[in-house]
Write a structure and sequence with these properties.
The protein is α+β, with helices and mostly antiparallel strands. The chain is built from two helices and four strands.
Length: 89
Amino acid sequence: MVTCPLCSDPQLAVGDGPKSVHQCELGPSPYCYVESTERNYWLCPVCDLVFLDPQQRPDPQQEKDRYLSHNNDPADPRYQRYLSLVVQP
């Protein structure tokens, strides 16, 4: 039995994750599968990378459309507020 470092749940299944998407350079290892209500995530127990299940990622067109919908104008108060989180957490 393995305890998940994300939620400390000892009941999470450990098995082969999507290694074709993330293969830790430190060697092969199982992935801890973490399921949420909206999305499913994988955790690499070697490097602690947490990543979205590849089947739930947007396709390239959806990703581009989302990117193009951003308004990164320095004069936009919403963008200023977003950037302030980096400077003032």
